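Minutes, methods subgroup
Present: GH (chair), OT, SY

1. OT presented the first of two proteins processed in the latest run. Sequence and structure tokens recorded below as shown on screen.
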Amino acid sequence: MSSDSSKKRKPKVIRTDGGPQEGKRGKADADQDVRYYSEECEVDLRDPIKDYELYRETCQELQRLMAEIQELKSRGIKDNASEIDERRIQSCVHFMTLKKLNRLAHIRLKKGRDQTHEAKQKVDAYHLQLQNLLYEVMHLQKEITKCLEFKSKHEEIELVSLEEFYKEAPPEISRPAITLSEPHQQTLARLDWELEQRKRLAEKYKECLTSKEKILKEIEVKKEYLSSLQPRLNSIMQASLPVQEYLFMPFDQAHKQYETARHLPPPLYVLFVQASAYGQACDKKLVVAIEGSVEEAKALYKPPEDSQALFHPPQKRRRPTLGVQLDDKRKEMLKRHPLSVTVDLKCKDENVLHLTFYYLMNLNVMTVKAKVTTAVEMTTAISAGDLLSPDSLLNCLYPGDHGRKTPNPANQFQFDKVGILTLSDYVTELGHPYVWVQKLGGLHFPKDQPQHTVAADNSLSASHMELTVKLLRTRLQSRLALHKQFASLEHGVVPVSSECQHLFPTKIVSRLVKWAAIPYEDYAELPYTKDVIEASLAEDTHLYYMALIERGTAKLQAAVVLNPGYSTLPPVFSLCLNWKGERTSSNDDNIRAMESEVNVNYKELWGPKPGYQLLTNQLQRLCMVLDVYLETEPHDTSVEGPKEFPQEKMCLRLVRGPMRLKPFKFNYPQGFFSHR
């Protein structure tokens, strides 16, 4: 309890150090204030443990006294009143002792809090000093980092090496006695020498500019002289024409050729000029010429739109029927220009591709006809009949360019007037209107905005000339290579070059017994080719063949789709194995894996560039994987006798995985088969 609570009542007995005191209230209050401060000083002299022991003893004594007082009161004897008072007085003394111990405890608690607060203030002060020091350290570290990362402008300048500096710089700049021992002075000296050199170079630069201006003036004078010389040279060339005729110089022939080219229609003229320029600059084996009647070209006039407006003889004749009129209109609509341009592409083996370009005047489109001349007479192959056919030789030179429809959208309206359904009915006579032919003639037909007249553009022709010539020569070489291979395939021989021998094992038992061309309709009727047709990998412009590979009682049929862009675009094989039933990719996972070996992993079979042996290598791989398929089949224990196809190929594992796939990959030079 505090001193304020003690002032509310008048104490009867006041104890200090265990001794009782008596007095008046004012004096007791003053003594109590003195006692408060004396107890505060007394706290430091007293032992808290002893005070605690005193507290326990006092409490026990109070409990004893209270129990005795209760016992005396319960007896009800009047003589016990003096004993009860005596014990009450002793209890009051003990209560005073407890109050003193309570004040001492409160004083100790207050002092402990004060000491804790003072210690906390000291810790906060030290922590603040620590934070200030850490901030100063961080600031100093940043300044040190800035100093270390500082880059002077001279570091970006490429100074001469020290050896050149001391060798070329004068002593008053280099000062070897000082700079060799002090790097800072050395750098300053090198910068001074750099400044001196740049001043010299600036003076030289000004001198060079002056000499350049003088040379430019001299060039202008010479240009004026050369421009005045051109008319004189023209007069000299005109005077030398008789000499050129007498000496049969080729200049005159070229002059006549270009004179004839003046009568060409604009698309054929653009083609002639660009093809001639490309032949002279890049391809010496490209020959360009003009064929046709020049007189007819000179006498040519613009035909009327209506065939009835044509000139008719004055004599009377019977009026033609409606059918004859339509025929005349169609002939007039499909009329070609009298002149045509021929381009001959020669290969290294002296084989020649002859291209004849025509211009349909009323339709404003160009067409082309192709013909192949070989240096050596080729072996006749029945299946190779369509390879060099004019109708299929140039198909899809560019993807999707079939040459069956006119590329000019305006022609359809013209066809409707004369009853022509499509131009494909006349391509055999007129030639194919491929899109690349139009571009070689500088013609471009926008599909969104049909135009009746389209001007020929030289830049369009020049941009497509080089690539088209390369594609034409590649197409000719690939078709000739296929023609030669087909002759061997028809005799049951799969030709494999020495460069591709490592792709196959030494012994392959399966053999090719049939190779023949089939029409698209027959290919589409085969049940195991539906996936290829649905994937748009087989179109009527492609070539189709059927191969038959046999080994014992097993017969493997392979339907082949040959893309016109062979060998850039690989052939696609569809397989059907007739052995103990019919097995295709739809009911046998290993047949699908065999198709994947030739259709997906075809890049392994390209062979030497340009990859014209891809087809024969694919057929040879089919023979190889058929051997693996048959030799790894489990033996039927119900059939007596030896196994029909004994295992001759070395395989690491016969089957693998839940689909029980066979090891079709051949590993060279180890000679064993493994799974992919």
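2. SY then presented the second protein from the same run.
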Amino acid sequence: MPQQKDIVKIAIQMPGAYPQLIQLDQKKPLSAVIKEVCDGWNLPGPDNYALQYADGVQTYITESNRLDIKNGCILRLTKAPGRCAEDLYKGIQSSDSGVRCDSLKELASVSTDVTFAQEFISRDGHLLLVKIVEDSNESNMIMTHTLTGFMELMDHGIVSWENLSSVFIKKIAGFVNAKPTDASIQQVSLDILESMVLSSHSLFLQVKQEVTMERLIAHLQVTNQQIQTKAMALLMALLQTAGDSDRQDMFAFLNKRNLRQYIYKNIIHSSGSVQDEMAHYLYVLQSVTLNHLEPRMRTPLDCYSQEQRDILHGLRQAAFETESENSLSHERRRSLCAKEFKKLGFSNNSNPGQDLVRTPPGLLALDTMYYFAARYPDAYSRFVLENSSREDKHECPFARSSIQLTLILCEILRIGEPPSETGSDYHPIFFSQDRLMEELFCVCIQLLNKTWKEMRATQEDFDKVMQVVREQITRTLSSKPTSLELFKNKVNALNYSEILKLRQTERLHQEETLAPPVLELKERLKPELLELIRQQRLNRLCQGTMFRKISSRRRQDKLWYCRLSPNHKMLHYGDVEEDMDNPPIETLQDKIPVADIKGLLTGKDCPHMKENKGKQNKEVLDLAFSITYDVEEYSLNFIAPSRTDFCLWTDGLSVLLGREMSSESMRSELEILLSMEIKLRLLDLENVPIPDCAPVVPKPPSNYNFCYDFSQTEQ
């Protein structure tokens, strides 16, 4: 007796008969099941019958797919695929055009089933269809059914596309090229040509020779959306399959006729499923076009290439007005070049080509820099000269920034990645620019300089700035700007302050979505972590900091030191020499009792900022703070050496005064500590042995030859 899991309860239909409800034993041969069904209706010749699904895709039931049958399925008793294939094969050859038309129409329908397709192809039925196309003596309706059936048969991959004759290919191309042709024939013909192109390079060459780009573009300009879609699919197939030379010719054709813009404007009015399909083709067009930059991105700079060396020196000469270099000695010229390459922001100023050896972005970074210098010379000179003249460690290195920005743009635009089969995320701005990569770079390198200044960044903040710039670009592109000007306006409006606000909003939204127990845990952890930050701030004040004095003559050579006593009751301060890194507390002659401190002032509220009102730049204002003591008649004025020191000292002084810390550093550190602590608390440590003591620290290595020597780069 069969087990219950091998039994499936199904219904079987047949036109003109009552349905049979049976329990299908999955271990019984399918031929035996069909015989029992035929016996139930008194049908002779069970070998001439087969079962197929009655609903949805009406697939034949075979031994290989019978296990997919579920309880409650409705099946239908129908002709066996071999008998059906034989009948249709004969019907297609009938002298009666009506019979031929009906047979080909049914063929187009049943050919979607692989079991039937195998039977029909085994009788060389596909060759019969090829002959009908080559003879071209049939009506448009018969030809449409013929081509549809042929396409369905070939889609199963049973027969190779390369076996087709050149006569057949010319006929199919002729249907596409002909102007007064039936739309249904053109749709299927475009489908067939797409499959040919994607199947092999030899067929690509034949199709490219037979179908002109002009005629293909004409199909994109018709009102029939199905033909538009099929023509777009063939165009994408040609672009994807073409070699570099052919692809460049196609790009030149598209750009010359402004067809990218036309395609986009025409396609966005498509509707429904057609629009989804067109979105995929627009994505493919963008991907294939941008990927022509991949060879440059993968190629490192060749230090022995005179052309590439000339471009590097062209960047230098475009930025700096130098005396005639031909009159200089070799050593003098070499020294001058190294100095100017350093001002340009190259890490290896003696051999700047080494900066461009890394791939990606390789030579593409050199291309974008040169394009910016040639296309926007004023903006280029302003960027370089503005930063090369600064001596306060806040200069933004043009070359290093350009190389990293080019890499970021390559990642955002997915240059070098083959197009996905289901991708549809394209950038409308691509269809308004012939040189999207270069123009985006020109906008974004100026954005980078602006963001650098907004963040008051130094060389140590380089990675942080690049993260912000990446976020500015991705957020702006996600809004789908349709032109470069619109992108430029939006990305410049998204300044560093806006990025911080967006991050805070998203963080709050993320917190709102957290489970209540996690929120409760977060609130319980906050006091403990805030106390940890308070202690760190006080310890930092006890270590002390070197401050600079700014006199009315803007001299910055006087230094003084301030530190908190270990018992947190006194602030000790006094003038020091430049070579004293950490003076003992006994050498600091002046002191202020913490109990006498009345207030903490920052920025323009500080007395030493009010005295020089209008003379201080924003950078100094952001680093200034003062404490008032006694009866607020006296003040001790500070200018922090960095924003980090400003945050540490204002937080520490706030703790001494019994106030809440409010700096951005405190908020950032609290967020990091909370996130880390919550993750640790939520770790699943069940059955995980935790040692009682810390693991032994391994011995130092015998040498440090694996370390990179940065000093070599700076020479």
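Chair's summary of item 2: Confidence is low (pLDDT under 50) at residues 711-715.
Next meeting: continue with the remaining queue.
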